[in-house]
Every structure is written in C-alpha cells, then in structure tokens.
C-alpha cells in the first residue's frame, strides 16, 4: 500500500519534473540549427568549377526545410589570402542548395557558410585545388559535347545538371592577415609537392562544436601529387584521438580521388586532440600532423522570461538564459554577447548588451516603460535564433492614483487654506494630474531608481500637486517652457 501511494504521489513510475524549457528545446532541435557546406566532388583543378552543396541541418544532423526565406553568405579564402563572397537563397521548404565558383589558384581554399542574420551556427569546409589537367599532346583529342556528362573525380557531373544555374561568386577582394585559429593557414607550403604527400586538416578548426553526440567536426586528409591527379590506389590513413568518437577508422582515400573524410563527435565538453599516425601505402605528411578540436556545452537556444504587463511607472527585469537539449539551463564555456533590442520606443532597456563570461548562463536587463501600449523586445546571440518578448504597458492604475492623490491634496489644502471645498478638490485633481504627468514623462526617463519607479511615488506626487493646486500648474508650465520669468510671490 505504501509503495502504491508512493507511485501515485510521484505521478507514475519514472516520473520526473519537466525541464522548464523542454518543449522549447524540442522545437529548436527539430528546426534548422546550423549551415553545412561540403564539396560535390573530391578532385579539383585550377580552372574547373568547384561545386558546393549547402544544407540546413537540425540538431540531429539531418537536412530540414527552411521555415522562411533564408539568406546564406558563402565566403571563400584563396591560398593567397584573397576573399570573395556571394549570397545563396533558400525559399520556404527548401533544405539543400547548390553553388559553384571557379578555382583560379593551386592550394587550399577555405569556405565558410553562415546565415546573413547570424541566427544559425555557421559551417566550414576546405577544398584542395591541384594543377590544371595536362593538355593532350596530339591535336586529335576527344571533344566533349556541351551537354554530355563528363567524369570528374569520383562522380558524374552533367553539363546540363543543377550546377549550370548556380550564380558565380561576386568577388570582393581583400587581403586580411591569416586567421591564427584556422589549421595550417600561413604555416605550411600549399604549392604542389615534388612527390606525393598527405595533407591533414580539420574543417572549421577554429570553431567550437556542440558536445551533444550529433554535431561533428570533419577530419580531412588530402592526397597531394605533383600533377594534381588522384590516388593511384586506395590509401588507408590511421588516426589517433584523445576523446570522442571517430568514424570511420581507418580513414580511406579511394583510387582516383584526392580526399578522404571522417567525423569526430563527443557527448562531453572537452578539447580532443587528433593526430595522423600512419598510412598504407606510406606517404610523408605535409605540415601539421595534430590538431585540437573544441567541444563546448550543447547550447540549443536561449529562453526569455520577464513581466508581461507593467504599469507606466513600474520597471521590470528581463532574463535571457541558455538551455540544453533537455531544456535545462546550461553554462557557456566561451564568452558570449547577448543583445536586447526594443522594437518600439514604448520601453527603454538598461543595458542593451550583456557579456556572459565562461561559466555563466544568463543575462539580465531592466525594462523601463516610456509610453503606453504593446512593446516587443528582441533578444539575440550570434549563432542562435533570436527570441521575442512582449510587454504590455498600462496606465489605468496611474490615472486612478492621480485622481485619488489630487482629491486628497485638495482636501488638505481646504483644511489649511480654507475657501470652497469643491473648488479646492477641482484644483487638487487638476494640479495632481499635471504634476504626476510631469513626473512620469520628464523625471522618470532620467532616473533608474527603483524608488522613483514605483506606484507609491506617483500617489505622493499627486497629493503634492493636489495641495499646490494653481501653483502646480504654474510650475509645470515653466518646466515645459510655456511660461517664462520668475513666479509671482
């Protein structure tokens, strides 16, 4: 009996309190969370188009449709450091787009794809471009028809296929310094080797991956030959890693291809070291053999809580907090900035930007009403979907306090100064309302004091205005510039 009562009291076997943001976390995980980019073929030469596939993925690494029109910015950095960018557009319901650009230099081209509004986690990739194909020695080379399919690397690329409509990169050249976080940038010779070698890379090596068991770092091993051709036979590459799960092991580069890939995942925040140990057949390794991959806390989004209604003279506190896949609050391992933006001028926020240091999970701002009506706040942090919070600013309570304070002030003035009671009450209501208006719209916006932003303060100001009567009107007129000169004694 005791056991039965215990089960009933707990809500059933295995019942546990639901996480505060469980439903929100589930919805976030099922929608687009990151941008993924990869190459369509595994052999690239100077002068050839480089085809890319850009995919919107959910938390489980599955392609998901865009809920609305989404703009993705694709940026490429050439071996010489030149940068270019272009836009790729996803219409509602689309999850994959293809894009191409021309390879004009030998070496590594680094690619990043990010949402224009920075509300999705960005993706990265690395492409190795080899020498242009050798021209035929005789003049009887086979001519490929314009719409015939031709063999490129490990797959067929149709001349009339999806890539023909991809718009070229709109070049905007710049010469920035190399990014010290990107693996291999500026520290190794990317020119063609004099003998076949392997090149070890981690795609997006300067980024932090989520420790949720789904988000993956791409491990890339390139085969570099003097003439830019693919591997003559299958190459098996053995890797060693300190933490996480690597798949596959060994990594394989297929015959005729120049690239082999593996993925590294982790369910725990950590720094995983991964190194290239050996290959079969054995080839020397160009540049770095070891990298560090950062896996951070699995932050799936931000939640916002705060008052939904405020009086005109009140203030409130809005809290934005990170949550994990189960909907529980989670701490960040890196410094992040939370931005609070008022959509209308009905409210003021203090401050509007909050830095969350490592180990923190939330940001707090104060909300001060500046007018009546509906106010919407937008809360955002780079890489995650922004969240809106709505506050309704009301003024009925303030109006009632003005009337009550004016009447009380008028009665006090009648007792002290005599005269007609109805007239004193009338002047008290008018004086209390005017002085309260002056207090709300001129004084409160200049102070963040909690004592000032209080309904009790409005009552006291109204009582004072009701007592002063005509003097309150004269004072208000001088404050707004309607009357000049010194008040009469």
Q: Which features characterize this protein?
A:
489 residues; alpha+beta; Immunoglobulin-like; 4 domains; 5-stranded mixed β-sheet; elongated; disordered N terminus
Topology of this protein?
Blueprint: H1 2-9, H2 22-30, E1 34-39, E2 44-45, E3 49-57, E4 70-77, E5 83-90, E6 96-102, E7 107-115, E8 123-130, E9 149-152, E10 155-158, E11 197-203, E12 208-210, E13 217-224, E14 235-241, E15 245-247, E16 251-253, E17 259-265, E18 270-280, E19 285-286, E20 290-296, E21 301-305, E22 309-311, E23 316-323, E24 336-342, E25 347-350, E26 353-356, E27 362-369, E28 373-380, E29 387-394, H3 396-417, H4 421-443, H5 455-468, H6 470-479
Parallel strand pairs: 2-8, 11-19, 12-20, 22-29
Antiparallel strand pairs: 1-3, 3-6, 4-5, 4-7, 7-8, 9-10, 11-13, 13-17, 14-16, 14-18, 15-17, 18-20, 21-23, 23-27, 24-26, 24-28, 25-27, 28-29
Helix pairs in contact: 3-4, 3-5, 4-5, 4-6, 5-6
* Main β-sheet description: 5 strands, mixed
Supply the number of structural domains: 4
The CATH topology name of the largest domain reads Immunoglobulin-like
Amount of beta strand: 35-45%
Termini separation (Å)? 86 Å
The SS-based structural class is alpha+beta
Helix content class: 10-25%
Report the CATH C-level class of the largest domain. Answer: Mainly Beta
Q: Strands across the major sheet, in which order?
A: 2-8-7-4-5
Q: Averaged pLDDT, please?
A: 80
Total beta strand runs: 29
Q: What characteristic shape results from the CA principal axes? A: elongated
**Named CATH architecture of the largest domain:** Sandwich
């Amino acid at each position: 009996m005791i056991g039965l009562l215990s089960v009933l009291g707990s809500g059933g076997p295995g019942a546990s309190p639901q996480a505060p943001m469980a439903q929100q976390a589930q919805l976030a995980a099922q929608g687009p969370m990151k941008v993924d980019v990869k190459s369509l073929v595994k052999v690239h030469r100077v002068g050839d188009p480089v085809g890319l596939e850009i995919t919107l993925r959910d938390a489980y690494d599955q392609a998901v449709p865009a809920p609305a029109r989404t703009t993705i910015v694709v940026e490429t950095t050439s071996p010489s450091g030149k940068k270019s960018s272009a836009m790729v557009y996803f219409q509602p319901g689309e999850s994959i787009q293809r894009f191409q650009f021309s390879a004009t230099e030998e070496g590594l081209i680094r690619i990043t794809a990010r949402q224009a509004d920075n509300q999705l986690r960005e993706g990265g990739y690395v492409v190795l471009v080899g020498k242009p194909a050798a021209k035929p020695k005789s003049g009887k080379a086979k001519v490929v028809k314009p719409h015939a399919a031709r063999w490129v690397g490990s797959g067929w690329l149709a001349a009339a296929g999806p890539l023909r409509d991809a718009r070229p990169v709109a070049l905007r050249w710049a010469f920035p310094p190399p990014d010290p976080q990107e693996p291999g940038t500026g520290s190794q010779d990317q020119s063609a080797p004099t003998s076949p070698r392997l090149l070890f890379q981690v795609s997006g090596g300067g980024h932090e991956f989520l420790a949720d068991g789904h988000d993956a770092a791409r491990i890339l091993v390139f085969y570099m030959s003097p003439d830019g051709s693919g591997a003559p036979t299958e190459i098996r590459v053995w890797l060693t890693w300190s933490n996480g799960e690597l798949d596959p092991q060994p990594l394989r580069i297929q015959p005729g291809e120049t690239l082999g890939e593996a993925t590294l995942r982790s369910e725990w925040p950590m720094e995983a070291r991964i190194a290239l140990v050996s290959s079969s057949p054995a080839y020397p390794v160009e540049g770095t053999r070891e990298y560090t991959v950062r896996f951070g806390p699995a932050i799936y989004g931000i939640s916002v809580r705060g008052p939904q209604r405020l009086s005109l003279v009140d203030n409130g506190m809005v809290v934005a907090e990170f949550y994990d896949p189960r909907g529980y609050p989670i701490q960040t391992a890196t410094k992040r900035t939370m931005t609070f933006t008022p959509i209308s001028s009905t409210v003021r926020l203090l401050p509007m930007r909050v830095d969350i240091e490592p180990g923190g999970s939330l940001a707090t701002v104060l909300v001060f009403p500046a007018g009546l009506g509906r106010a919407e706040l937008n809360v955002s942090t780079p890489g995650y979907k922004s969240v809106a919070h709505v506050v309704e600013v009301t003024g009925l309570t303030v109006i009632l306090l003005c009337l009550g304070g004016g009447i009380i002030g008028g009665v006090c003035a009648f007792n002290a100064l005599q005269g007609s009671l109805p007239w004193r009450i009338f002047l008290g209501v008018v004086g209390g309302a005017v002085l309260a208006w002056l207090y709300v719209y001129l004084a409160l916006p200049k102070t963040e004091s909690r004592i000032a932003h209080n309904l009790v303060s409005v009552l006291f100001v109204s009582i004072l205005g009701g007592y002063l009567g005509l003097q309150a009107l004269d004072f208000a007129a001088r404050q707004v510039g309607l009357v000049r000169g010194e008040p009469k004694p």
